[in-house]
Amino acid sequence: MATSTAAPQPRCAGVLVVGTTAHHYQRPGTDGAPARTPAALLGGRYYRRRRVYEYCDFGGSVDHGEAPHIAAFRELLEELFGLGCGNGHTGMRRLLHEATQQGRAVRAAAEALHRDADAAGAFVGAPAVAGETRHSQPYLQLVVQAEAVLATLRRFAPQLGLALPPGAPAAWADEAGRPPPPQQQPQPASAIDVLFAAGVRNDELTSLALLSVEELLRGAAAGGAVSPLAVRELGAPSSPGTEGSGGAAAEASGGTNAGASTGLVDLRGTSRCDCMVGPGGSVAACAPALRAYAQQQQQQQQQQQQST
């Protein structure tokens, strides 16, 4: 992989986390068991200025003196787990947060996330720079596999105060106490399933969506409306979120996720054909790498099914 530090120095950066979901699949495999679907994890919230509820990767502005690839992972930690200093922070507020124990832990974890992903070859393609439509600035888009992200987060969980759910499935049986046939047994949660279950509501996140890579590519090129595999509405930061396909995801933020109840949600930029959407959007910038990743994962599953 071309190192992220060789990319241009944009003012904004973000991470798109991808993986194969074992719990939210599109179709069964050839053996009747759930087929793991290549998927992307997106965060949703209400954008007050434009009065829209949209989903996006995890990203934002690069701080002064900060490397863009580190900023991307810092934004992932802040937005997915509420570890930042709040939405709309000032420069001074950011500096004060950086001086706290949590701020130092977030910085160290962001650096480790990039370093570990690079060492593991977990980046999907080279860093891509989207056109000057998002925040009126070039946007550095990284795509990283969820397995590497979760491995690093488990190591930093005590310092960050994260409560990451286990990856093992719950055991179950029918009314007679008999275990289900192999093809119906619960699948172990994949890394992206764990991250989907671990997100915490905060100023910048009120719901999460798992979206197949195929649907992400289609929707970003076709106006921005997409059909997710699953949507998880997040409760208050002090309580666990609940999973579902509808509900008021952003009551405290001034808007609701009305689209989720219809089975369709919008990617960020749907209303303006920018950000993630359209030929100049961040999805188009990394589309070849995403397409190759999805094809590779599907081929690996086919090989595994044939070998068994």
List the topology elements.
Layout: E1 12-21, E2 37-47, E3 52-56, E4 58-61, H1 68-81, H2 91-98, H3 101-120, E5 128-130, E6 139-145, H4 146-160, H5 191-198, E7 207-212, H6 213-221, E8 225-226, E9 230-233, E10 242-244, E11 265-266, H7 282-285, H8 287-307
Parallel strand pairs: 1-6
Antiparallel strand pairs: 1-2, 1-4, 2-3, 2-7, 5-6, 7-9, 8-11, 9-10
Helix pairs in contact: 1-3, 3-4, 4-5
Helix content: 25-40%
- Largest sheet report: 9 strands, mixed
Q: Which spans of ≥5 residues are poorly predicted at pLDDT below 50? A: 1-5, 28-32, 169-174, 237-254
Task: Output the radius of gyration.
Answer: 19 Å
Distance between the termini: 32 Å
Structural class: alpha+beta
Strand residues, percent: 15-25%
Name a few traits of the molecule:
308 residues; alpha+beta; 9-stranded mixed β-sheet; two-stranded antiparallel ribbon; 8 helices; globular; disordered N terminus
Can you offer a commentary on this structure?
The chain is of the alpha+beta class. The protein has one domain (7-307). 32% of the residues lie in helices and 19% in strands. It contains 8 helices and 11 strands. The protein has helices at residues 68-81, 91-98, 101-120, 146-160, 191-198, 213-221, 282-285, 287-307; strands at 12-21, 37-47, 52-56, 58-61, 128-130, 139-145, 207-212, 225-226, 230-233, 242-244, 265-266. The strands form 2 sheets. Strands 1, 2, 3, 4, 5, 6, 7, 9 and 10 form a 9-stranded mixed sheet that branches. Helix 3 (101-120) packs antiparallel against helix 4 (146-160). The two termini are 32 Å apart.
